[in-house]
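The records we work with from here on pair a chain with its fold. Each token is a code from a learned vocabulary of local backbone shapes. A record is reproduced here so that you can trace the correspondence yourselves:

_____
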Amino acid sequence: MQSLLIKNGLAIDPVSGEALRDILIEGGRLNRVARRIKPPPGCPVFDAAGLWVFPGFIDAHVHAREPGGEAAETLESAARSAAAGGITSALLMPNTSPALATAALLAKYRRRAAGLPAALYFSAAATAGRAGKKISNLSALKNAGALAFTDDGSCLPRGLLAGLIKEAAALGLPLLDHPEELRLTGSGVINAGPAARRLGLPGIPPDAELLAVLGDILAASSAGPMHLQHLSLASSVAALRAAKKMGWPVTGETCPHYFTLSDGEIKTDDASYKMKPPLRSPADRRAVLAALADGTIDLIASDHAPHESRLKAKGFRGAPFGIIGLETLAPLCVTELVLKKRLTRKRLSELASFNPARLLGLKRKGRLLPGFDADLTLLDPRRLKRVPGVFVSKSANSPFIGRPLRGWPAATVVAGRIVFLAA
């Protein structure tokens, strides 16, 4: 039976908190978590002294581009990128070409994802073909292995929303929405504000996100659970906070770029800063940080959206929306949240491990307890490194290139096997 002993690390559990612990792994599961564990005969030992040991980080919002966009990313390159970023599990979005909207297609790509360095899970299109006209065969998609439903990249159609919420709830799977009123976005490519005016670019009004968030929350209040993706506005997180106080079944996520950057940092026509929703004002950034700290926002996801460099070179008007994020999520969280004392390590464990596991129904993930899957993210808070210009990902569309960060992964363990080890 394959075994591994992680010794001397600061184990950070989202429920019980943190303590120096050894962790014994056998057969792909956590066998023992204790202050001192003697290595069994022949058991390899990894010395984690000085490292923070988290339950494996789970990224619930990733675009792997396969099928249809393999020049930017593939399942294999996304899995290697995730492992290099300390991400042990990732939920892939269905806005591929063709869309992951049928049971046969979903089953095909689940087979292709088997055995890769990180565990790749799939969401499936909530509407047939992601066309927004009728509800997909959600039961068949669940039977084919879908862990969630979404039309990510498009807002769920208002006319189908109540039915979608009820069907997804009946199947026990989460419904995720990309809250954006496209009629208000129009030709916008950047947040409507000073940066848009300075660069002469068409702006995206905040109401494009807020009105969709309010519609989702109102639907959830009577129909059932709803998860709001990539929240970026002070008004959006305020609406989520109010809904939770009412006891309505809504959850939300944000991404590292929304708590790290604002539109004031966009100085030139550089599409590395073009994403959707766009970077917002400094006040919005501060509100997102507050919502992470007070429990309003439930999880952090990368919204990893790789694109070829030739496409991103077209500038804000011509380039596609999106930035990569799998390899920078962990160090951005450590640098911007924990080391700046905005969050505790325990709270980060909730946001990056425990809450995503609960959202996706991954019952053996997200804790450091015997019997749980041996997925671990080992971070080094002392290691200072600039974000490189070349990534494990096939793409490099990141606004963080050159930024000095701490908290880089020292090792990533998936199902008891070390799948990434820092040089």
Observations:
- The radius of gyration is 20 Å.
- The chain has a mean pLDDT of 98.
- The first helix runs from residue 75 to 84.
- The longest strand covers residues 3-13.
